[in-house]
Amino acid sequence: TNAAGCSAIEVFEEAICITSAPIANFFIEPSTVTTLDPKVAFVNQSVGATDYLWDFGDFSPFSNENNPHHTYPSDVSENYIVTLVAYDENECSDTAKAIVEVREELIFWVPNSFTPDEDKYNPVFQPVFFSGFDPMSYHLIIFNRWGEILFESMNHEVGWNGTYGGQKVQEGTYIWQISFKGKYSDEREIHNGQVTLLK
């Protein structure tokens, strides 16, 4: 319409095309793994997409696979944010994120004998923990065959040197009990066994 009130109309058929945007979606199997086996699979459930870009969150190369597999570092426990960007044929995109949790495996070893005979070999009985436990929850108890407590320790770095009341105990078999919480749980684990004191 101009200043004089004259007007004109022009119609453009199909000048604008509106399409549905893609929807990015995926799930992880499994979403929690351990440092002993940090392999995961990503199942793509995106809708309306033709191309994909995966960022696994651990500074590894991106992937353009539909359903990739990935192995995370096995030397550290960590939470990784995984990002999927889904693109349609018009290069419209949508983004989805999820978390992969890599946990330390509980690994410990308990010796079955020790020799507190004043040489430098195996002088102390001490469970050895490598990963996956809460050191603040640690408790070690040593019993004799009659159930009398000979030694206790709340420090996983302090073991039993084969004495009770300042005196060396006799050679023989003694009962141990260790209890502790896992690194990712408040549930207390209790383990029992026997250790042989040799002289």
Which terms would index this structure?
199 residues, mainly beta, 5-stranded mixed sheet, rod-shaped
Give a brief rundown of this model:
This protein has a five-stranded mixed sheet, with no helix packed on it. Strands 2-7-6-4 form a four-stranded mixed sheet, with no helix packed on it. The protein has a three-stranded antiparallel sheet with strand order 1-3-5, with no helix packed on it. It is built from no helices and 16 strands. It is mainly β.
Largest sheet: number of strands, sense, barrel closure: 5 strands, mixed
Strand order across the largest sheet = 9-16-15-11-12
What is the overall number of helices?
0
Task: Please report the total strand number as a whole number.
Answer: 16
Query: How much beta, percentage-wise?
Result: over 45%
**Looking at the chains present, what oligomeric state does this protein adopt?**
single chain
How much is the radius of gyration in Å? 32 Å
Structure commentary:
The N and C termini lie far apart (111 Å). The strands form five sheets. The chain has a five-stranded mixed β-sheet with strand order 9-16-15-11-12, with no helix packed on it. The protein has a four-stranded mixed β-sheet with strand order 2-7-6-4, with no helix packed on it. It has a three-stranded antiparallel β-sheet with strand order 1-3-5, with no helix packed on it. With 199 residues, the protein is mostly beta strands. It has strands at 26-29, 32-34, 39-44, 51-55, 69-71, 78-87, 93-103, 107-109, 113-114, 128-131, 133-143, 149-153, 163-164, 167-168, 172-182, 188-197. Helix content is 0%, strand content 46%. The chain is built from no helices and 16 strands. β6 (78-87) and β7 form a beta hairpin.
